[in-house]
Design goal:
The protein is α/β, with parallel strands linked by helices. The protein is built from 11 helices and 10 strands.
Length: 296
């Protein structure tokens, strides 16, 4: 069992939330922690410099970079600093560390050694977008970034097609239209969603509507930081899932590298159907493709 306090002579790891846009949203404790830190691990040291200047904070901490490319290699160094009694502050470019940002490896390593980990709560694009979306907020799940490759993306979406909770995703602006089109195909063109762009910044924009309409809007190109919120699946009985949809989900998984047997089993489990029913749908579709009807 681990504790929240850690050894008395060890340091403390502080995960600090940073503004996702408006610098005025910085939590009051952030300035104090920046000034008190012995070591600051920053996703981008240049952004850290701008942050401290904007907040009017002077720090004497040793600053090191900590980003996706060096996260594995630098984690042991930061753990040693914690074991030596240092106060290590982790900041990412925006929002909360470890939420689709560097941080998880360091937290896991610190917890494994029973070192103290605490946080400075701050702005979150996930919760901000969810609150602004106008979609149900009582139950939700965060899915991070969809895979970049089309087949893998469709497979991931297919995994969540029957999810009843509201879904929150991040996406790069240049992939937004493609992702929204894929969501419309997998979730249904009329599934309600919201695209939140540049949250808390000067050009903040929230677009709400069916996925097909949002995909059409995004086709002309969209800029800025993007968060997508999608309504959960409606209550449906297994009998309402037509064979074409079952085949579509199986093929999406196959395109992502799953064997057909495993894909059929996964789709059946998600849909609450017997595997035989999904298998029959796949076989019928294949037969229809290889033996198209001929005109008399």
């Amino acid at each position: 069992m681990t504790t929240s306090t850690g050894p008395a002579d060890a340091g403390v790891l502080v995960l600090a939330g940073t503004p996702i846009g408006d610098i005025a949203d910085a939590p009051p404790r952030l300035s104090a922690e920046l000034a008190a830190a012995d070591v600051i691990a920053a996703e981008d040291t240049r952004r850290l410099r701008r942050l401290t200047q904007s907040l009017g904070v002077t720090t004497t901490a040793r600053v090191v970079s900590y980003f996706e490319g060096n996260e594995s290699a630098r984690t042991p160094e930061l753990v040693r600093a914690l074991e030596d009694g240092s106060r290590v502050l982790l900041v990412t470019d925006a929002g909360m560390p470890s939420v689709s940002d560097p941080g998880y490896r360091l937290v896991a390593a610190a917890v494994e050694r029973d070192l103290r980990v605490t946080a400075v709560p701050g702005p979150s694009a996930v919760l901000t977008a969810l609150a602004l979306s106008g979609l149900p907020v009582d139950r939700f799940c965060f899915e991070g970034f969809p895979p970049r490759k089309a087949g893998e993306r469709r497979a991931r979406l297919a995994e969540t097609a029957a999810e009843r909770r509201t879904l929150v995703w991040f996406e790069a602006p240049h992939r937004l239209a493609e992702t929204l089109n894929a969501m419309a195909e997998v979730f249904g063109a009329d599934r309600r969603a919201a695209v939140c762009r540049e949250l808390t910044k000067t050009y903040e924009e929230v677009r709400r509507g069916p996925l097909k309409e949002l995909a059409a809007w995004a086709a002309d190109g969209v800029r800025g930081e993007i968060t997508i919120v999608v309504e959960g699946a409606p209550e449906t009985g297994p009998q309402e899932l037509d064979p074409a949809e079952l085949v579509r989900r199986v093929r999406a998984r196959e395109e992502a590298g799953e064997r057909r047997k495993e894909a059929i089993a996964a789709v059946a489990a998600d849909a609450g159907l017997p595997k035989r029913e999904v298998f029959d749908a796949v076989v019928s579709a294949k037969h229809a493709e290889t033996n198209p009807p001929t005109n008399a």
